[in-house]
Amino acid sequence: MSLIKVKLSFSGGMELLFNNIKQKHIEISSSINPPNATTMKDLVCKFNFTILIKISDNLLKERPELFMSGDTVRPGILVLINETDWELEGELEYEIKDGDDIVFISTLHGG
Amino acid sequence: MCSVQETSLELNVKTKPATKDCIKCKTAKATVLIRHSTYCNKCFQHVFVGKFRKNVEKSRILSNSAKLNGYGEKVMIGFSGGPSSRTMLQLINEYNEARPHEISKKCAYTEIIVCHIDESVLFNNGSTLSTNSKCSQESTILQVEKIVQKYNYPFIGLYLQDIFNPEVTKSGCYSKVLELAVDDAKMLQLEEDPAISSTEKLLNLLNNISKLTAKEDFVWYLKLCYLIFTARKNGCKRLLLGDCSSRLSIKIISQTSKGRGFSLPLETSGEIDWFEDVIITRPMKDMLSKEIGIYNQLTGLDSIYVPSITSMMHPKASIERLTEDFILRLDKEFPSTVSTIARTGAKLTPSDSIVKENRCIVCLMPYQENNKIWQKRITVMMVPSLQKSEECNRQQSSSNKATSYYDNCKSSNDESTTNVEFMDLLCYACRVNLNVINQRIILPPYVAEGVEDKKSNNRKQMKKQIENYLLCDDDDL
């Protein structure tokens, strides 16, 4: 088991959920759920996400519905993995690799 | 989640493509999925810009053939700073700069003004609208100005509360405001009290509207009216708004739910001349919010975050917010939802019974003749059994207040025709909005001016009716 580096970016209002932090480099285990490789599901999963983003001032913990909807990211939030639409990368099934650049963009401002 | 199931609801749903090549150039690896089509970055941008240009060209050709004879026109961009209007600003700039070298030597638009309305007042100054004290927000004007400076266009930064400025009227100097009391729906024309700041007036108005739906609706129309008046004042023939197709489809459904079906075709169309001297164009009407998000990310366009009053709230906070949630969720499962609604909505044409004179004095949209009568017929304002018990009656005071509106309206029917009843001058939806006020409110000068106009119109009409019987024409009627 090793650590992988991931760059997370938030924009379009998403940053407000994360204490106004627009970019954050984090290190996560390459296998959060052994023996499987770490996927987007592991990253985005409600519990891991708040643990991973220690920076958020609990807003996300209190109001996970602003980010999550069921097991996945709320509709209206656009996710790009290395500048590629995550819907083409298998969404939650995507296996995160070292150096991945993941962007979350809120596209409509209701949420 | 990621595979769309075939259901009986939608027979044409294709499973998302397994191939990951761009469907356009068929060589590059696809990076973007828009509805059912995959594109590479280059082709995506090409298609995206193409859609925009098509819309702008269309509106230009229409107006050229009408009156301009090929000369460019002066336009105003309504720029919120959000992603969609950010893209619009950039694309309008590219279009206007690039064109002279292409088809003709003339610029499409001779002059472009960018106008921004700052809404931060809604979140500051102890407004009850802000849910979170941390949400208190700085003015957006500086941030927006920074963006606009990159383009060399004149910039107008306005504050929403200045809608109470006497200049924001047809005549440009109408200083009266309109006071509306709760219990008897009586209106008073007041000289503006300079002691009360515009901010207080606006907050008083919005804080006394108890429903978030109504509040949100109000803010939108105040903004729209302000933009129209500003465009007119600056001699702009066209107002460009950045509503994208996701936003429009949400509007189509929410406006219908709010009872704005009558004016819906005017409010969601890509090009409309309802405001006569200012044409509203929505060049972004065919772009999804997802496309805009990706385009801005790929091209590095920086937009600012403009919260709405229901931001960060529960999806059921208002009709608009609920509709947004509903449509986005549906669109996730059925990626054609937004475009189907938007295209169906685009087929709507304004009703033949729309008359230019019947303009709601608050939202400036048309109202249906006699809508008050059918509204009264279809609305239950009170549960009949409650009428008997006084105590219950007191609890139902809010609905009582509302009924008294109608009683008042009824009694006024017999009065002289020059007497204009405020409630008669509203469209159905604005009347519903104003039914939920808590205390007396002050409406901006442009509304007061609307009432005055209507009165003098009525007087003129009456004079016309009795013209033949008048002995002396220069009576001071």
Automatic annotation (TrEMBL), chain A:
<comment type="similarity">
    <text>Belongs to the URM1 family.</text>
</comment>
<feature type="cross-link" description="Glycyl lysine isopeptide (Gly-Lys) (interchain with K-? in acceptor proteins)">
    <location>
        <position position="111"/>
    </location>
</feature>
<comment type="pathway">
    <text>tRNA modification; 5-methoxycarbonylmethyl-2-thiouridine-tRNA biosynthesis.</text>
</comment>
<dbReference type="GO" id="GO:0005829">
    <property type="term" value="C:cytosol"/>
</dbReference>
<protein>
    <recommendedName>
        <fullName>Ubiquitin-related modifier 1</fullName>
    </recommendedName>
</protein>
<dbReference type="GO" id="GO:0034227">
    <property type="term" value="P:tRNA thio-modification"/>
</dbReference>
<dbReference type="InterPro" id="IPR016155">
    <property type="entry name" value="Mopterin_synth/thiamin_S_b"/>
</dbReference>
<comment type="function">
    <text>Acts as a sulfur carrier required for 2-thiolation of mcm(5)S(2)U at tRNA wobble positions of cytosolic tRNA(Lys), tRNA(Glu) and tRNA(Gln). Serves as sulfur donor in tRNA 2-thiolation reaction by being thiocarboxylated (-COSH) at its C-terminus by the MOCS3 homolog UBA4. The sulfur is then transferred to tRNA to form 2-thiolation of mcm(5)S(2)U. Prior mcm(5) tRNA modification by the elongator complex is required for 2-thiolation. Also acts as a ubiquitin-like protein (UBL) that is covalently conjugated via an isopeptide bond to lysine residues of target proteins such as AHP1.</text>
</comment>
<feature type="modified residue" description="1-thioglycine">
    <location>
        <position position="111"/>
    </location>
</feature>
<dbReference type="InterPro" id="IPR012675">
    <property type="entry name" value="Beta-grasp_dom_sf"/>
</dbReference>
<dbReference type="InterPro" id="IPR015221">
    <property type="entry name" value="Urm1"/>
</dbReference>
<keyword id="KW-0819">tRNA processing</keyword>
<keyword id="KW-1017">Isopeptide bond</keyword>
<dbReference type="GO" id="GO:0002098">
    <property type="term" value="P:tRNA wobble uridine modification"/>
</dbReference>
<keyword id="KW-0833">Ubl conjugation pathway</keyword>
<keyword id="KW-0963">Cytoplasm</keyword>
<dbReference type="GO" id="GO:0032447">
    <property type="term" value="P:protein urmylation"/>
</dbReference>
<dbReference type="Pfam" id="PF09138">
    <property type="entry name" value="Urm1"/>
</dbReference>
TrEMBL record, chain B:
<feature type="compositionally biased region" description="Polar residues">
    <location>
        <begin position="394"/>
        <end position="415"/>
    </location>
</feature>
<comment type="similarity">
    <text>Belongs to the CTU2/NCS2 family.</text>
</comment>
<feature type="region of interest" description="Disordered">
    <location>
        <begin position="391"/>
        <end position="415"/>
    </location>
</feature>
<dbReference type="GO" id="GO:0005829">
    <property type="term" value="C:cytosol"/>
</dbReference>
<dbReference type="Pfam" id="PF10288">
    <property type="entry name" value="CTU2"/>
</dbReference>
<dbReference type="GO" id="GO:0000049">
    <property type="term" value="F:tRNA binding"/>
</dbReference>
<keyword id="KW-0819">tRNA processing</keyword>
<comment type="pathway">
    <text>tRNA modification; 5-methoxycarbonylmethyl-2-thiouridine-tRNA biosynthesis.</text>
</comment>
<dbReference type="InterPro" id="IPR019407">
    <property type="entry name" value="CTU2"/>
</dbReference>
<dbReference type="GO" id="GO:0032447">
    <property type="term" value="P:protein urmylation"/>
</dbReference>
<comment type="function">
    <text>Plays a central role in 2-thiolation of mcm(5)S(2)U at tRNA wobble positions of tRNA(Lys), tRNA(Glu) and tRNA(Gln). May act by forming a heterodimer with NCS6 that ligates sulfur from thiocarboxylated URM1 onto the uridine of tRNAs at wobble position. Prior mcm(5) tRNA modification by the elongator complex is required for 2-thiolation. May also be involved in protein urmylation.</text>
</comment>
<keyword id="KW-0963">Cytoplasm</keyword>
<dbReference type="GO" id="GO:0016779">
    <property type="term" value="F:nucleotidyltransferase activity"/>
</dbReference>
<protein>
    <recommendedName>
        <fullName>Cytoplasmic tRNA 2-thiolation protein 2</fullName>
    </recommendedName>
</protein>
<dbReference type="InterPro" id="IPR014729">
    <property type="entry name" value="Rossmann-like_a/b/a_fold"/>
</dbReference>
<dbReference type="GO" id="GO:0002143">
    <property type="term" value="P:tRNA wobble position uridine thiolation"/>
</dbReference>
<dbReference type="GO" id="GO:0016783">
    <property type="term" value="F:sulfurtransferase activity"/>
</dbReference>
